């Protein structure tokens, strides 16, 4: 039986690479649904090629354009976030790949878990915002959540059935500004920040990587995926991105997963788990690397990493506050409305301004997200005093 897959965010970096995986294994996987936010042309082209049962465009204004583009195809066309949240519940779907960006991934992921679908989780923001809720729901429904983030896939591949994790060591490339001084960071531009040395990703995660918020989010993601305490998660800067992450066990043994930086591997592993299947493309060639290096992360220059650990320690709705403020400042940075270092200032301020809730429920997350966006947007306009 072919696995039926729904891809949320099909037109993005992860989404398009997931479709390459499907294309390579037509005997194993079939696309049931594809969703996107705005890119009608690409979504229509994907629908023609992969012939899903349904496509959903989140932006309702694009509905007629998409419907028209697929008028000769036997595919159901829907629009809007409600439709996106409903499509994941469709009976034939086995796996939902959450490859949309940001907080918008939360509601469809919750619905997919409630419907008992296996989650291939790329959308780390879901676990950052509401890790506790997601874990509870997944536990109740016995829904597997398989990591797609390369570091977490690496950790997942290193786990041992009968031995608990002593420590998780997440590797970080350090991004384009790894060697920049604080003085230099004051004036970096979005064009510089968008040039990631090792990975080609969507704009938001590329900025998060440059600011190290991505690594902060990955620490939170690791906590929820692997059930460890924050002090059991260490970050090490490893600019070559050959080691994707590591696990240390009780006896001091450290296991690592290595490979070329290619997101198709963790995507495919989430689809094929527990099996491994062939993946075409470049393989790790050790003769190309004469050194692998490791550094401690610097939280003075990359304050976001410290803010993320702080949010994780505080718990409650604090990670949700950090996520929402970060989404606002990243959008502002991408439209030249805030400086690179100004992003951390706004996030830090938002953490003190938005009311803290120790045990938030879903409605509290929605409220926190909205309130934080309002406050962060104001801070972007008026500056942090
Ligand atoms: P991207 O910007 O390339 O693509 C995002 C996709 O989500 C697009 O298809 C877009 O149409 C859709 N989308 C955006 N906003 C939406 C909304 N409000 N409603 C519905 N759909 C929406 O992003 P990406 O780089 O593919 O990243 C996707 C997710 O995967 C992010 O959470 C990111 O952190 C995570 N991730 C990405 C990578 C990577 O290599 N790109 C690695 C690890 C984790
Ligand atoms: Mg990652």
In short:
This protein is α/β, with parallel strands linked by helices and 385 residues long. The chain is globular, with a radius of gyration of 20 Å.
Q: What does the model show?
A:
The protein has 385 residues and is α/β, with parallel strands linked by helices. Among the domains are: 3-147, NAD(P)-binding Rossmann-like Domain (Rossmann fold); 315-385, RNA polymerase sigma factor, region 2, helix turn helix motif (Rna Polymerase Sigma Factor, Chain: A), CATH 1.10.1740. 46% of the residues lie in helices and 15% in strands. The chain has 16 helices and 11 strands. The protein has helices spanning 13-24, 40-50, 63-69, 81-87, 106-114, 125-141, 150-158, 182-185, 190-193, 203-211, 213-226, 264-272, 303-314, 318-334, 340-353, 362-382, and strands at 3-8, 29-36, 54-57, 76-79, 95-98, 118-121, 145-147, 165-172, 233-237, 243-249, 254-258. A 7-stranded parallel β-sheet has the order 4-3-2-1-5-6-7, sandwiched between helices. A 4-stranded mixed β-sheet has the order 9-8-10-11, covered by helices on one side. Strand 5, helix 5 and strand 6 (118-121) form a beta-alpha-beta unit. Helix 6 (125-141) runs parallel beside helix 11, helix 11 runs parallel beside helix 13 and helix 13 packs parallel to helix 15. The longest helix is centred in the last third of the chain and has 21 residues, at 362-382. Bound molecules: nicotinamide-adenine-dinucleotide (NAD) and magnesium ion (MG).
Just name the CATH architecture of the domain at 3-147. 3-Layer(aba) Sandwich
User: For the record, what CATH class of the domain at 3-147 applies?
Assistant: Alpha Beta
Low-confidence runs (pLDDT<50, min 5 residues)?
none
The gross shape turns out to be: globular
Question: Rounded to an integer, what's the Rg over CA atoms?
Answer: 20 Å
Tally of individual helices? 16
| CATH domain fold name of the domain at 3-147 | Rossmann fold
The rounded distance between the terminal residues' Cα atoms is 60 Å
What does the average pLDDT come to?
97
Present as ligands are: nicotinamide-adenine-dinucleotide, magnesium ion
Number of strand elements: 11
